[in-house]
Amino acid sequence: xxxxxxxxxxxxxxxxxxxxxxxxxxxxxxxxxxxxxxxxxxxxxxxxxxxxxxxxxxxxxxxxxxxxxxxxxxxxxxxxxxxxxxxxxxxxxxxxxxxxxxxxxxxxxxxxxxxxxxxxxxxxxxxxxxxxxxxxxxxxxxxxxxxxxxxxxxxxxxxxxxxxxxxxxxxxxxxxxxxxxxxxxxxxxxxxxxxxxxxxxxxxxxxxxxxxxxxxxxxxxxxxxxxxxxxxxxxxxxxxxxxxxxxxxxxxxxxxxxxxxxxxxxxxxxxxxxxxxxxxxxxxxxxxxxxxxxxxxxxxxxxxxxxxxxxxxxxxxxxxxxxxxxxxxxxxxxxxxxxxxxxxxxxxxxxxxxxxxxxxxxxxxxxxxxxxxxxxxxxxxxxxxxxxxxxxxxxxxxxxxxxxxxxxxxxxxxxxxxxxxxxxxxxxxxxxxxxxxxxxxxxxxxxxxxxxxxx
Length: 455
What we know:
Elements: H1 10-23, H2 29-40, H3 47-62, H4 78-83, H5 100-118, H6 126-135, H7 151-157, H8 185-200, H9 206-216, H10 224-234, H11 260-264, H12 270-281, H13 288-303, H14 309-317, H15 325-338, H16 343-353, H17 359-363, H18 365-379, H19 383-393, H20 397-412, H21 419-422, E1 428-430, E2 438-440, H22 441-453
Antiparallel strand pairs: 1-2
């Protein structure tokens, strides 16, 4: 039944909203017991009654003010975001025009490679991932993951081929199960961003992005915050409100995985990339959910010219509020790296703060932006090493693999991505975007470069 579809009912939002609102600085103690009681007695309620009660509680939580002692300032409006940036970290770059096409190709390849690497283990916990990698002689990671393993390993790690973690598919995307690069939301959003830029240009509006979703990507192909926003937009909630209204997933990772195309088309211009990312992110996210997309878009734009990994991460931070939780967490990772903290300790520290068994922590923008930062810093411009670290960290492996692969692909260019990775990714990408159901990576590269050339 449609009422059992994930991310669609107000009742299922309640526990996530409780945690989300608390992290935003609201006093939610008054609602905790009330929500627990409703959940406990929900079996005696009709669907309509549960939805009505949930709506009423969500409405009240939404109106709660931020506590005065909350130490962060996290606006949604671009003008206020600009006021709170650390101007010392903001930079523009001169890019060697002769390298752009190879870097764009590297970005698309890297995104596909990283996404495919992480797909079959999305949702696995860190211990399970590490054990599987070690027992298949792939630790540190050197190659794609396969289900063609011994019966002992299959049973030990519950290795499945029946569509577990497969996006819109019935077969799990282990490397031995694919022919073309399979559809995934991580690549769908990159493609729909490209389509938007082709139709509306670099000055596209949030409304135009929203319309592109409604006309080019079915609702069932989007998840969490995007699915809520999709419904909001369809109900004529304006894009200035659709990202946060009755949307408990507003700081989850969904916007961050949409950033890439905006970095691709702004070589050397992190500010412009972040501005595009803001126009996109606000339709489905709020606060750090928006900042994650701006951060990654800026990283990608800077990666055309900046090979110093510390300066690269700092440049991304320069485009988001220095008063935000995301800024604080990532800057702390940079500081630890510069002070000689090991990769293992950095990952352990992240896991001590964000519980991988909690769906909110697991999917939170801040958590996964931290994974990206750790992977880029400790990967130190080595494509394979950076992707391997993204897998070792756990959390949202396909999203983080795609983002890290994308950044590394721009940094080093397609010609420097190891052949062992490129040879396993066919030239065809499958998507759920109308007009792009099967498209070659070569064509995507060409069309992206055409957008760059339009001033």
